[in-house]
Task: structure prediction
Amino acid sequence: DLLLPEVESEPPDSPLHRALLDALDGGALFFRQLTDRAGTALAAADEPAPTDADAVSALWDLVWAGLATNDTLAPVRALAGSRGAAHKTQKAAPRGRYARMRSGRPSMPSRSGPPTVAGRWSAAVAREADPTRRAAARAEAYLERHGVLTRGSVETERVVGGFSAVYKVLRAMEDSGRCRRGYVVEGLGGAQFAVPGAIDRLRALSRPDDAGEPTAVLLAATDPAQPWGAALAWPPVVGTDAETRAKHRPARKAGALVVLVDGVPALYVERGGRSVLTFTTETAALQLAARTLAGAVKDGRLGALAVQRADGQEALGSPLATVFSDAGFRATPGGLRLRA
Result:
């Protein structure tokens, strides 16, 4: 109730929407149970019985409005995998939104309903009415999530009102001693906030005499622990011309991966794994990054990879071919391939 996002538009209000929302009171209903209850309520009010397509569309209208939820992510996956899902925007008209996201293949009728309404449905938790409590809870969550909270970090959260809306809360938390402000990360100005424990850990890790063997970590490009492209600007990529740079450039995209070596990007894997970008020419860093990537495949954390292009050129003829081969990738006609 404290961390749910703000509702930016008026909730849908039609007889079908109201009937579905009333039926959700108490929750844990499968789609067919939900439509049966809503249909009974509509019949009592002399309203026509809804078709499955109308009920699905109205139910997702309630989801977009933050009024309905599910006990599984299966409907979201089914919706995101359907044709045209990338064109959905939250500013689209509520009615008919589902029609633009349906797959080209017609859905087969079933007792449980289409895949986009699988699982059990219930009404979403009511939001906390006090805006001050909601703002304080969000600020605390952002501090825990990012460690050092900067303007760029807040922008990745898509907060209504942007950094200025959170800044007021952070300043009050600083005055009460619940967080600190300072020049924690070089080059990002003084509007940086962190809890005392995070700053102490950073100080301990920044001592040069504690430096040991380099370490690598594989993260999703959108992970809050991955600050590049948000709090920090991406470093320049290696070996790509202007035309290639326009097509292949690092970004915080879903499905993309980043290998950080001692906190600095070394390898960027685009969604699907067919193209990689490098940020360094140091062989040791690239070898460690490639081994880390290969280890994730062998452990089953990633699926099979088939790298076809590296820094804008054919992977088999690039300087990375030797590095990836040493990490266990095999040269095939389809590129550098590795399976679990």
Remarks:
- Confidence is low (pLDDT under 50) at residues 84-109.
- The CA atoms of residues 61 and 93 lie 9 Å apart.
- The radius of gyration is 25 Å.
- The first strand starts at residue 29 and ends at 30.
